[in-house]
Design goal:
Beta-galactosidase; TIM Barrel; hydrolase; glycosidase; 23 strands; alpha/beta; 8-stranded parallel sheet; DUF5597; beta-galactosidase activity; Chondroitinase Ac, Chain A, domain 3
Length: 561
């Protein structure tokens, strides 16, 4: 097999891009409900939905219990069929490995693992009265579960290479799902307590003794007392100063990372597809989205969310001790979307959002991820149980599919694009979404919700700096003002503004209409209107409805002689 033909990540000036069939690939993805991909029969009614929503990639799970129902006896019949069906529908697959862990639990482990707590011991959780209860979570501190999971995952990856290596239907694999301990800040089993009372592993001691300036702000804030103390060799976990729950989280994060590293490295040794794991986020504090209720997702303390998962607080630990994972990916439902995108570019790792909201609120935000943070792709969850005609992703993915070559070209450059969104106005008419400022070359841009005489709509899109004074605008419901940044410029205006479409075969841009005048509010802005602008009773239909959602704008400036 030609290793260069295997899907892989390639470094660019800005980030890393996913390379499929030798070309950069933007995942217009959707994740299925947890068990949908286990049934070829169920999926027969789903494939057309995904295509209707303009998706090119589906995230579907394969579980340990599915492929190894009896120890040592592997069955890939159902998996092989759904992969074949995906290939027949020209869809790529990101395969989700539900092995030892899924949503902080071990519910997808096979029966022969679940029924043998002596060989595969469980996590113990501490109740409020101090007693311990058995959790539905495999402990990290036995050895058999890790070995058995790694063996199963390696067998899966070898099988993928054998049956799909020449086709690259599967382009990435997720290792486990939202790992961590729920219900307590750490495992309280006898094995865990023994490990907690032992000296810190030498490799972690050396990691904590290094320069902290490159660690996340959250890591430095939560564990800052470790930086200030003398970390002598032989210290146990219990000797470490600081907030005990944060020490517990560090303890779990290190051991989860080591566990997943064994699993991931076993699989990668036989088929080196890009690998990642995803993260259930903590929702309180500055990273919570003020527009969504936090009651859905837990809280701010380890154990309210899965303690030990790769949240920003311990992201450096994961990156250091699970090097076979190409990146750590955030699931974003309730958090401040743009802020979390930025935080998960930490140490220049690529960004991928494997789970997010599937409604319009979520669809608007993908433009920020893709346009501003070089995102490999976004994936609304539960996409198979939504009516394609009602899915906002159909519209957004349709535009991205048409322009993906332009988006990918911009992503590969430094400071070549910016993505943004504007939410629905509050009931009292207030605009909670701030204007966006950007600078490209000689031009300062102000991007805001597009003007209408009635009630403004939502908006989203991206601006790509093509070259010099040429800008590509994608999306709806926004407007852009251009100002030359030279102090000698006494006037800035719009020289040309054209509606564009993309020829499907050649991918060449072609001019559809010349825009100026009303479409620029008499030269003030380049307006990308919404589908159905509200005229608010104004007697003249000044604002035109959106059509292609693509335009090229060329600003100009006048200078003092």
């Amino acid at each position: 097999m030609d290793l260069l033909r295997i899907p892989h990540l390639r470094q660019t000036a800005n980030s890393k891009q996913l390379i499929v069939d030798g070309e950069p690939f933007l995942m217009l993805a959707g994740e299925l409900q947890n068990s949908s991909f286990s049934s070829p029969e169920y999926m027969k009614d789903v494939w057309s939905k995904l295509i209707t929503m303009n998706m090119n990639t589906v995230l579907g799970s394969v579980s340990w219990e599915q492929i190894e129902p009896t120890e040592g006896a592997f069955d890939f019949t159902s998996l092989d069929q759904v992969l074949l069906d995906a290939r027949l529908h020209n869809l790529r697959v990101v395969l989700l490995w539900f092995g030892s862990f899924k949503n902080g639990l071990s519910t997808y482990a096979p029966p022969w693992v679940k029924r043998d707590p002596r060989r595969f011991p469980r996590v113990k959780l501490r109740d409020k009265d101090g007693s311990r209860t058995t959790a539905d979570i495999l402990t990290l501190f036995g050895t058999e579960a890790q070995k058995a999971d790694a063996k199963a995952f390696k067998t899966l990856m070898q099988h993928l290479r054998d049956i799909d290596g020449e086709h690259a239907t599967v382009i990435m694999v997720q290792v486990e799902n939202e790992v961590g301990v729920l219900g307590d800040s750490r495992d309280r089993s006898d094995l865990a307590e023994e490990r907690f009372a032992s000296p810190l592993p030498v490799e972690l001691h050396d990691f904590l003794a290094k320069d902290w300036s490159g660690f996340t702000d959250a890591f430095q804030h939560n564990l800052g007392e470790l930086r200030q103390c003398s970390l002598t060799r032989g210290l146990t976990w219990g000797d470490l100063p600081g907030n005990s729950k944060r020490i517990d989280e560090l303890f779990m994060a290190f051991h989860y990372a080591v566990y997943l590293e064994e699993v991931a490295s076993a699989g990668k040794s036989v088929y080196p597809l890009p690998l990642y794991t995803n993260v259930w986020q903590n929702y309180a504090g500055s990273d919570a989205d003020a527009n969504t209720p936090a009651i859905v997702g837990g809280g701010s303390d380890p154990g309210d969310y899965p303690s030990g998962g790769g949240v920003v607080d311990v992201l450096d630990v994961w990156q250091a001790f699970a090097p076979s994972l190409d990146f750590i990916a955030p699931d974003i439902y309730l958090n401040n979307y743009s802020r979390l995108c930025k935080e998960y570019r930490h140490n220049n790792q690529p960004l991928f959002i494997p789970e997010q909201r599937r409604d319009e609120y979520g669809a608007l935000r993908i433009w920020a991820a893709i346009g501003s943070y070089g995102c490999l792709g976004c994936s609304p969850f539960g996409i198979d149980t939504v009516d394609p005609a009602q899915s906002p992703f159909r519209k957004h993915y349709g535009l991205l599919a048409k322009t993906s070559h332009l988006v990918l070209s911009a992503q590969a450059k430094g400071n070549a694009s910016i993505g943004f969104f504007f939410d629905e106005l509050s009931p009292d008419g207030k605009d909670q979404t701030p204007k966006v400022q950007a600078t490209f070359g000689d031009w300062n841009l102000q991007i805001e919700r597009s003007f209408v005489f009635g009630r403004p709509s939502v908006g989203s899109g991206m601006v790509i700096h093509l070259e010099n004074d040429q800008f590509l605008l994608l999306g709806w419901g926004f407007q852009v003002n251009f100002k030359h940044n030279s102090s000698d410029a006494h006037f800035s205006g719009i020289l040309k503004f054209e509606e564009i479409d993309v020829d499907g075969g050649s991918k060449e841009l072609r001019t559809v209409r010349l825009l100026n005048g009303d479409e620029t509010r008499s030269g003030l802005f380049a307006i990308m209107p919404s589908d159905d602008p509200d005229y608010g009773g104004f007697p003249i239909s000044v604002t035109i409805p959106a059509r292609t959602g693509i335009a090229v704008c060329q600003p100009y400036a006048l200078f003092d002689e």
